[in-house]
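#lab-general

N.A. 3:47 PM
ok so I finally got the sequence cleaned up, no stray characters, all 480 residues accounted for. can someone with queue access submit it? mine expired

B.Y. 3:52 PM
send it over

N.A. 3:53 PM
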Amino acid sequence: MVWNDYERPHADLREAIERIERAGELLRIKGADWKLEMGTLAEIVYRQESPPAILYEDIPGYPKGYRAISGTTNSAKRLAIVLGFPPPSHPLDVVRAYRDRMKSHKPIPPRVVNDGPVLENVVKTGIDVLKFPAPLLHEHDGGRYLGTDDLVIMRDPDEGWVNCGTYRSMVQGADRVGLWISPGKHGRQIREKYWRAGKPCPVLISCGHDPLLFLAGGNEIRYGLSEYDYAAGHRGAPYEVIESEVHGLPMPAHAEIVLEGEMHPSETMPEGPFGEFTGYYAGGRGEQPVVRVQRVYHRNDPILGLACPMIPPSDFSYSKCVMKAGMIWDEVERAGLPGVQGVWVHEPGCARMFNVIAIKQAYAGHARQALHLAATCQSGAYLGRFVVVVDDDIDPANLEQVLWAMCTRCDPVEDIDFIRRAWSGPLDPRLPKGRTWNSRGLIDACRPYEMLKDFPPVVKASDELRERVRAKFDKQLRKR
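B.Y. 4:20 PM
back already:
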């Protein structure tokens, strides 16, 4: 595998941060308090154009070396660094690079080792998870959240595969953290298997690791495929993992902070509310399982990974859009859909709820096929809302072009379909409490196939004319 400017993939979060800073994509903030200031700063920074990653240093009340990082993947350039792609010039460049890699992508299982930086400190007694600067991100959050950019690591008790999902983790006490997992997620399915057998569910929570693992953990990888294997296939080398002391679960050898414990079916505590990626305090406050923390592993001067959900854009929404777009593109092509020209998942749709697929129409029904596949494939199924299909002359990443196509090529009665009782969850703010399904709007914004030859032509200068005029007036145009 060719890694462009880098001779090898980064070894850990620290090396990734070094590369991000060399690329001019890092902002160092000193003195931000864990109580509301970190989250508010993220909201301020991520409303700016081309926002950087934020490294929080000198956090009041914590040792000088303790830090926190957010936004490591949230620009086209940073995402390319993490994934090992060429520097992009258009948002779809990273999506295309991802799609191309997936054609030959092969999962690589981790390599078990006996030692690594995460074992620099092993805490067995006197555990206090608030030795790390877990933030209160939003004013109405129900507590401090240690796990937002986390990996919750579990092993399926029946099949033996390891799942690494990103599920929010709220501090409930010195040696207790709550764990909220949406219905249908792999981690919840695994947890229920242990409980049905009358056993506690062993778990690791990694709270600082290679950003590529966060990209894998936050997306819908197919059931049975470990995020370790999937992410390693992208980096071109296996992850080194260490088997944890109590339960023998694999933790990243180069992780910053890892908690080890177990969940018991009868032990719950009030969790939430939490300001989520939809921009709402969705999910409310309710009883959720608690992890009894039995071990804490951490590096010297640990770096806590943060994700700060908010009204999009956030410090992770861009990377979610790129990854999800690439995954949907890969899945619909593998399902046999021809002529896909591009896929984009838009940030205002919370990186899930407004997805656009562009095709070159080849037959009647092609557009509807694209809509249904994009809406129901594994990567597009959870918590969706609208899917739009456009012709190949429309840039799916350009919202103005997409809206123009919707307004001029879509007849509401003829060209909008619905899917009912689709997979959703409590984080959907539109759902009544207790319901975990919603509907999907499928919008065909393509020219009708039977009108392709007769549809009115677009008012647009040819590429040749535009370039000739631009070259003639180049000096005057550059004065602006």
